[in-house]
Amino acid sequence: MSSLLKNYNRRKIAFKKGKGSFLYSTSGKKYLDFVQGIAVNSLGHANPYLIKALNKQSKKVWHVSNAFIIPEGERLAKRLTQKTFADYVMFQNSGTEATEAAIKVAKRYFYSIGKPKKNRILCIKNSFHGRTIAAIFASGSKKMTEGFGPKVGGFDHFEFGNHQSLKKAITSKTAAIMCESVMGESGIKVIPDWCLRELRKICNKKKILLILDEVQCGIGRSGNFFAYEYSNIKPDIVPIAKGIGGGFPLGAVLMTKKVASGMTVGSHGSTFGGNPLAMSAGNAVLDQIFKKGFMKSIQKKSRYFISELKKIQKQYFSIIKEVRGVGLLIGLQLYEDQTKFIKKLQENKLLTIRAGENVIRILPPLNVKKAEIDLSIKIIKKVCKEYKN
Ligand SMILES: *Cc1c(COP(=O)(O)O)cnc(C)c1O
């Protein structure tokens, strides 16, 4: 019997090693892994470059307190700000810590400019920002908050895609609107560019901060460094995590100089956040992702992958309802039961994972090879064909 708490319904499979897009099970089977730790292993398993970087750092120093200067962190923060809207970065260890920190930054900004009553965060109903006690109430999901009362206050909600509901929910107390540029867990729901632009306009007009949660869709996953870049807007605060560590736990919140002004000495902290090992992982990931042509290669692979999936959808329109997503954050919305479909794919040696709205999520590493995409297409086709018969 496992001594691990039963808060997960784990598949009966374990892995002894991984290499690139593949995982090798303890029972000797080889799987094409298009989960990649849920968009975490952005450069695949056992990436030689990442191994080298971590090995090198592990022989120097693992952890020092944030009471001291951490040069690896200085470098990672500088690189993140040079490539993005942000002026400042604060490192955390996970996505939910990053979203919580983002909320704190927003609240503290208004406090610091003498508007402490402007302190409510407006989120999309049934979104996902992580699992801490505040983040679950930010999601507005009944399932996630059940039994975890009393309700954490300070969050309001509007319906995805419902602009009336958004406008109605904004009050003089709204400090920030927080949403994912692409809603991952909820079913790979892409917020259209024009909606993001409208959102920015509304925020400007009402003097509200815009927090775009790029924990899942950021760091190249969308085919741009950040998914919101397709809309040409600039957010005020962006929490990141998942892909930035390439498999090493690492989160951060990026922000503009304006909003950073509230976060004075002592306003936030994290013992582990930004330690040298994590920073080396982050820097190594950026070395690869910032390479010339890397984003273009993701976009090209994405176009190919999505067009092949759409062909399957056309052929098996009674099984697959819709192909969704952007970059290598791809979803297949099914008519058939998603759990059964995922199981069948796994029996055929392709690993995928569920998302909301009966969607299966396909998350290859960003350096996936065309031949591996072709292999997955073959498997998905085969499983669809089995349904037909
Ligand atoms: C995964 C995720 C989180 C939470 O990240 P953890 O590292 O699991 O805490 C927050 N926001 C979004 C959009 C995510 O996809």
How would you describe the overall organization of this protein?
- Helices cover 38% and strands 19% of the residues.
- The protein is α/β, with parallel strands linked by helices.
- It has two domains: 15-33 and 293-388, Aspartate Aminotransferase, domain 1, CATH 3.90.1150; 49-289, Type I PLP-dependent aspartate aminotransferase-like (Major domain) (Aspartate Aminotransferase, domain 2, 3-Layer(aba) Sandwich).
- The strands form five sheets. The protein has a four-stranded mixed sheet with strand order 1-2-3-15. It has a four-stranded parallel sheet with strand order 6-5-7-10, with helices on both faces.
- A hairpin with a 4-residue loop joins strand 2 (22-25) and strand 3.
- It is globular, with a radius of gyration of 21 Å.
- The mean pLDDT is 97.
- Pyridoxal-5'-phosphate is lined by residues 94-96, 99, 128-130, 180, 184-185, 213, 215-216, 241-242.
